[in-house]
Every structure is written in structure tokens, then in C-alpha cells.
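F.,

This is the one I mentioned.
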């Protein structure tokens, strides 16, 4: 079982002020704990469609991450997610604080294990549960900067190595 993770998004387009928005994010992920000690911090991206109806909004999206495991292996994690957010009113039109949760179904695919580098190795499917928050900073009428972090748990099925 794999445990832990830290995700740090930096969005170009975010939710505040628009009923429906698209978010495209560059993401950093730092796995830790359990069987993740050999998995290095990685980078990824996500695409999200967000529906906002006041302080509460709902995001649906896809994401992908790439991590190195030692000198000859790598792991890709990709999946789909649901992310509700609650925006806390700070009385400021430029900056907002939010709390978020995330539920995801992901596939963990390893490359370079028992096969030539570049060929697929074992894979496992699992779930990710995250909680976190961040700040939305209004940069213009249709652009916000989203600075946030989440911590969560990744649980995978068995994979044969």
C-alpha cells in the first residue's frame, strides 16, 4: 500500500467570478511514506472543468504525473478526479482563501522494471483522497492565480514486479 503525497498547483485560469471555467495547471507532487520512499518528487499537469455557484464550486478533471524511481525506472500516474472547493470570504476582492477536497481514481504505471527502458512494466489502479486549501489571487477579469497545496493518501491494488 502506498501512502502520502503533496500536490502544489499553479493555475493560469481559475474559478472566482466565472460560473463555468477551465483550469490548466502545472503540478508538482512529492510522494512520501509507506512504499513510496524510492519514488522521487515529480511533475505533472491537469485539466479541470469547474462549476461555481457562490462560495461552493465543483471541479471535474484529468491529471498526469511522472516520477523517477532510481536511475533506470520511472512511474506515471494518471487519472480522473472530483474536487469540491469552499471559498472563505476575506472581505477582499483581490484575494480569496479556499478549502478543498479531492477524490480520484488513478493508474500507477511503471516503466523499466523487468523490461527494456521505455517499455511498459507492471501497473496498478487505485484511489487518491486529498484535502487542502490555498489562495486565489485575481489577476484580471478572466484570469486568477491559484496557489494551493493538498495532502492525501494513495491506495493502490497489487502489482507484480
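My design for it:
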Amino acid at each position: 500500500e502506498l501512502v502520502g503525497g503533496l500536490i502544489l498547483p499553479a493555475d493560469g485560469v481559475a474559478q472566482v467570478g466565472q460560473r463555468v471555467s477551465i483550469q490548466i495547471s502545472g503540478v508538482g507532487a512529492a510522494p512520501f511514506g509507506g512504499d513510496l520512499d524510492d519514488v522521487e518528487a515529480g511533475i505533472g499537469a491537469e485539466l479541470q472543468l469547474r462549476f461555481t455557484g457562490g462560495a461552493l464550486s465543483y471541479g471535474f478533471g484529468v491529471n498526469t504525473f511522472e516520477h523517477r524511481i532510481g536511475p533506470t525506472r520511472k512511474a506515471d500516474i494518471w487519472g480522473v478526479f472530483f474536487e469540491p472547493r469552499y471559498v472563505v470570504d476575506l472581505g477582499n476582492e483581490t484575494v480569496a482563501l479556499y478549502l478543498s477536497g479531492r477524490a480520484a481514481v488513478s493508474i500507477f504505471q511503471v516503466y523499466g522494471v523487468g523490461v527494456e527502458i521505455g517499455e511498459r512494466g507492471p501497473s496498478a489502479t487505485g484511489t487518491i483522497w486529498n484535502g487542502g486549501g490555498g489562495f486565489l489571487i485575481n489577476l484580471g477579469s478572466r484570469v486568477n492565480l491559484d496557489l494551493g497545496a493538498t495532502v492525501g493518501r494513495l491506495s493502490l491494488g497489487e502489482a507484480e514486479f
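The radius of gyration is 17 Å.

Talk soon.
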